[in-house]
Amino acid sequence: MARVGIVGGLGPESTIDYYRRILEAWERLDPGSTPSIVIDSLDVATGLRLVERDRPALTEYLLSSLLRLAGAGVDFAAMTANTPHIVFDELAALSPIPLVSIVEVCADEARRRRLRRLALLGTRFTMEADFFPKVFARRGIEVVAPGEQDRTWLHERYVGELLKGDFRGETRRQVVALVDRLRVEEGADGVILGGTELPLLLPGAEIAGLPALDTTALHVAAIVARLRQGSAGP
């Protein structure tokens, strides 16, 4: 049976969500059995500090997790957060095991749905970096982020509330209002929930009338598909 390695803890709530969703998806496909999963849980505070101040050290921090997972015998790995994908290319070049990119699977889904201009929500690091726009541009899709004031506000709520498992109704209403502004002002035809805590705050297929791309759900589907391929008999 194939075994997946999960780089978790970035943050804990989304790691729990990934584990639950993988098991639920597997149960639907193969009732009565469970997939083989190894989770290496990192420190979210360390991750946030490194992504802001020292990207090479962030790469080393994440690579150390991948090396531990490889030592545990996993066949491939995935990071349960969008922000660490800011150094995905560097990690993929160094990792001893294949990685499943949350950004690539999200871009594939956007193309499948024929979306052309997507609003991106996430941490400030995710919204201000180019890793989402670059991957989506290869498929002819534009990615737009909120303005500076809205990015600052959302980042503060993300770090101060969502990463701590604090999902407030008022924050939910304000994020929906933000998406509505991006629909009107930027012509967005969809929204990327580019933080794996965001689907916990904003469940549902649409936000402010726009189709929502749940990066957790898309990543989990890709992970389970990869596990199923490795589990197939002769």
Overall description:
The protein has helices at residues 12-29, 44-53, 55-71, 88-94, 102-112, 124-128, 131-137, 148-160, 169-186, 198-201, 215-231; strands at residues 3-8, 36-41, 76-79, 117-121, 142-144, 190-193, 206-207, 210-214. The chain is built from 11 helices and 8 strands. Helices cover 54% and strands 15% of the residues. It is an alpha/beta fold and 234 residues long. The protein is globular. The model has no long low-confidence stretch (mean pLDDT 96). The strands form 2 sheets. It has a 5-stranded mixed sheet.
Task: Please name the defining characteristics of this protein.
alpha/beta; single chain; 234 residues; five-stranded mixed sheet; 15% strand
Number of helices: 11
What's the end-to-end separation, in Å?
12 Å
**Series of H and E elements:** EHEHHEHHEHHEHHEHEEH
By secondary-structure content and strand pairing, the structural class works out as: alpha/beta
How much is the radius of gyration in Å? 17 Å
Mean pLDDT: 96
Query: Which percent band covers the strand fraction?
Result: 5-15%
Largest sheet: number of strands, sense, barrel closure: 5 strands, mixed
Number of strands: 8
User: What's the arrangement of strands in the largest beta sheet?
Assistant: 5-4-6-8-7
Uncertain segments are none
Helix content: 40-55%
Please tell me what the overall shape is: globular
